[in-house]
């Protein structure tokens, strides 16, 4: 193999150096600037993406704070409406209790008046009914017809007790 022959080493080393320098020049002048540009573009894009992510995170935090504030206000408004509704219900109940109390008192007075009237009517008719019943009982038990004056005396005596 000629490349392993020591006589050709010096020419091979020269060509190796020339090839290496040409390849180095080619890489340093053509490839490396493009790679550098790509890396720089990539770094810029990553920095932009990080900046956008930071902005989105800040925006998300602002939205979250706005949401929490809105929820807090909504809870406060709901509690106020609940308190207002409870107060209205309590007022309505008090008003109904007053109305019921008035109606109850009025009906109680009417019932007492009816009872008093019935009692008075009963007291007026009681002696007559009692005398009639007593007369029938005496006649049934003893087969004697008592006089009205006798029955009246007995009934009046009993009624005075």
Uncertain runs are none
Look at the structure and give the mean pLDDT. Answer: 92
Assign a percent range to the helix content.
Answer: over 70%
Number of DSSP E strands: 0
Proportion of residues in extended strands: under 5%
SSE arrangement, N to C: HH
- End-to-end distance: 161 Å
- Largest sheet properties: none
Classify the oligomer.
Answer: single chain
Summing up helix and strand content along with how strands pair, one would put the structural category as mainly alpha
Total helical segments: 2
Query: What best-fitting shape do the alpha-carbon axes yield?
Result: rod-shaped
CA radius of gyration: 61 Å
Characterization of this structure:
The model has no long low-confidence stretch (mean pLDDT 92). The radius of gyration is 61 Å and the shape is rod-shaped. The protein has 2 helices and no strands. It has 161 residues and is mostly helical. The N and C termini lie far apart (161 Å). α1 packs across α2.
Task: Give me a quick take on this structure.
By secondary structure, the chain is mainly alpha-helical.
């Amino acid at each position: 193999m000629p490349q392993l022959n020591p006589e050709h080493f010096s020419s091979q080393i020269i060509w190796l150096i020339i090839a290496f320098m040409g390849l180095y020049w080619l890489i340093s002048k053509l490839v490396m600037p493009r790679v550098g540009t790509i890396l720089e573009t990539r770094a810029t894009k990553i920095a932009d993406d990080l900046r956008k992510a930071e902005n989105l995170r800040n925006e998300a935090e602002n939205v979250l704070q706005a949401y929490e504030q809105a929820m807090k206000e909504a809870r406060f408004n709901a509690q106020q409406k609940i308190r207002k509704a409870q107060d209205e219900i309590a007022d309505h109940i008090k008003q109904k209790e007053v109305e019921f109390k008035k109606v109850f008192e009025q009906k109680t007075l009417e019932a007492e008046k009816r009872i008093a009237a019935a009692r008075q009517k009963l007291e007026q008719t009681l002696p007559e009914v009692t005398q009639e019943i007593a007369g029938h009982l005496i006649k049934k038990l003893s087969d004697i017809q008592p006089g009205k004056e006798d029955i009246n005396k007995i009934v009046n005596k009993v009624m005075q007790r």
